[in-house]
Amino acid sequence: MSAVAPLEVRGLTKHFAQVHAVDDVSFELRPGSITALVGESGSGKSTVARLLARLHDPTSGSVLWEGSDVSRVRRRRDALRYRSEVQLIFQDPFDSLNPVKTVHHHIERPLRIHKMVPSGQVEERVHELLRAVGLVPPHEIAAKYPHELSGGQRQRVSLARVLAVEPKVILADEPTSMLDVSIRIGILNLMTRLKQEHDIAFLFVTHDLASARYVADDLLVMYAGQIVERGPVEEVLTAPLHPYTRLLLAAVPDPSKRLHAERIEGRRGQAAAAIDPPEGCRFVSRCPIAIDVCSQVTPRLVEARMQHSARCHVTAPERTS
Amino acid sequence: MTALMEAPVEPRTHTPALLELRGLTVEYGRARAVDGVDLDIHEGEILGLAGESGCGKTTVANAVMQILRPPGRIAGGRVLFRGEDLVGKSAEALRQFRWLNVSMVFQSAMNALNPVMRVGDQFVDAMRAHEKIDKRSALKQAEELLELVGIDRRRVRAYPHELSGGMRQRVIIAMALSLNPELIILDEPTTALDVVVQREIMQQVEALKQDFGFAVLFITHDVSLLLEFADRVAIMYAGEVVETAPAEQIGTDAQHPYTQGLLQSFPPLTGPLERLTGIPGSPPDLRNPPDGCRFHPRCPHCTRDNSALYLRQTTERPVLREVAPGHAVACHLVEERNA
Amino acid sequence: MSQFDPTIDLPLAAPPARVSGRVRVPGWLVLLWRNRKSRIGMLMVASMIVFALIAPLISVAHPNDFNLLATKQAPSWHHLFGTTDQGSDIFSQVALGARRSLLLGFAAALLATALAATLGVTAAYTGGIVDDVINFFINVFLVIPAIPLLVVISGFAKNRGMWTMVLVIAAVLWAFEARILRGQALSLKSRDFVLAAKASGESTRRVVFAELMPNMVSRIAAGFVLVFYIALLTDAGLEFLGLGDMTGTSWGVTLYWAQVNSTVLQGEWWPFFFPGAALAFTVLGLVFLLAGIDEISNPRLRTESAST
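YS: structure for the whole thing
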């Protein structure tokens, strides 16, 4: 276990006008581990990643890097230092690369901006990075333009670009959802290998529970801007506490369900960010086990089992002392 | 050269074939997006058509509806609906055919709704374009259809932006049903939707199918979805059908290496967790596909070790052959194993 | 996105085509050559450039030489385009006028485009107060009526030389382009690759010049050509009215004198025809080029079939 202080998020909140995109989110990213942030579209998970990448400023809360709050940093030098340690990979492989620039350009720029290697060694380092993500022969690939590569290859280029600055944290915002199914595994395996070889802390944002299970160590479930459950991935998936997690698990297509399919309840409700939400649990309109207090008091994230917490009055009630 | 089935695969249910594709070939300029496809859809069945990007599945759907955009054109083969070939029919005949006999829900069709028209009015437009019906009755039907797909009938006065993505998709499906077609083509209807909404919609489609008895051609890249909801599944790769089988059999007894690789690409949600490999490489450029079996450059069973087989794999296009009742595979290796 | 989608956009910023052989032709040149309209336009403008370079070397006389013995002469071998009422050789005037026009047009286009692109894109990407300030200036310049301003400035400027014209025209036209480019940059700035560059730590200057602008080449090029021919027409127009630099040699001045001396009424068509034709030919070439650029940038305008 390395001694580097982790990236910690405390009470992170982001409101866009009246839309509560992210509300009171707290977690930490540890080196050499992959934390999956799972949620439906609009749940706020991408916003969390972008907040950590400092593409937005939070409305309140803090992002602690090596002890100090980076969310308020203004000086270019400090911002640059943070950017060299925490990097972001985007969802759309077609859009995250500049169409009129070569692969070489994309990887060379971060090397130069952060002065990672002396000028003379840049080209060699670009080739090394391409090899590290499985893009060979490197000199051929480096000369190509994005439209000459497949989706999977483009995501690998994005990974190579991110690795160029030798970050301690990589935020992967749905890196595989726009790729062909047979290509996704390759990218997920690459992420696992990078985590092991370089001790990187990954935040893996996804809506796909199965992918989360495949690569992640810890799981965070988001609903309407809040974290509703968290814990080690196997634990959460085999013994889910929050009704929403259970709903997600029931909804994933499963061939063995053919014969005895349970109809899931089609109640009203959306996983998307709430607009000016009132007090009370945001899942209450869809919840099969809601009780009176659920629509009155917003539940808190409570540790119901060892390292496994949920935000639910019924399954993870607060212990009143 | 077409990949013909040796003999038409007999459906287990013995219902008549509603739609038959024989040697369908579609070209876009120099590239063959669909090359010699044979497919059958029977009354009341859900046929899943699965494959990854560029395999030609959407092109097949567009060819059936005869809505290919130039430079796309049908270069060969037949599209038989109840025995009548649609290729070469007049524009007017096709217009009648569409929507009445076959209707289609496109990918991200929810974005195809006119943003400045109320939902109900769009129903009325669609219906009146295809049959003589007055506005009031059409609107009433629209309300009923909305209820059928699980939307409050008062929403008939809503504008598209007032509905969620899932609801808009349901509206589109309801519109596709409005003229009671015998076949509905759904092209990636749930890809842009959340997994919970996806399940609700799939359940709705199943229920409607029970009530109305239409057949469904369900196109998706998500094989796991088909394994749960489809009756039969056909797998496409690089413009060809490589395997067809009843849905249960595809899941447990997939024979084509591509199908196996594809199924291997879905990490399991339950059960033991092992390292998966996916399928190395990428789909071929259809302007210049590989000789012989199109999958051979990526196939783990194509090695020079077995030189006779290797020769066939690299020079001869495999043909769909039945290996079990209702289960056909186009693969030299499978052929040799069964020989 | 299917690889067979014929509506895929191919902007002028398309990367170089890999041409087999030793010569690597820039991609934009290949695109411009393939499109019929821009090919014609390029050839027309190129031939005028060649004319401007070579013709003054082979002209018989200095353009403003007065040769009272050879006034009002129709085109002949000695005076290819004839002579004016003062006996000046029209061929020389048109040839030197070509040099001036092309230089002026190019300079005005360059200045206006540089201003418009830099200010427009920076305003869009930076946002905030910088955007507000630049926007304010764009609006001010847009509101000022161009022609009256030009007339007033050229009427009152002490130095009416070519460079004054360049400045004036650029000042009048930059705002129009700037607004358009700002709009385009606004739609680009939230694209993932721009955010990725920002997240990598790229400075604003580099994002504007190295990431955004290369993706806007079609529009910038189109704006450049537009300003070019508007500048030509404006300059010639002002001189024709007697408001430009009347001591220089240019198409407009030749036309002015032709008008003033009512040459056509006397049956002398050549003092009007040749400078007018030269101007029309050049402007037409630029218009073709612009139409070609538009077609390339917007596949829906293409009249030829897609090359896939």
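YS: worth flagging: Chain C is about 65% helix and 0% strand.
IM: good catch. Also Residues 188 and 212 of chain C are 7 Å apart (CA to CA).
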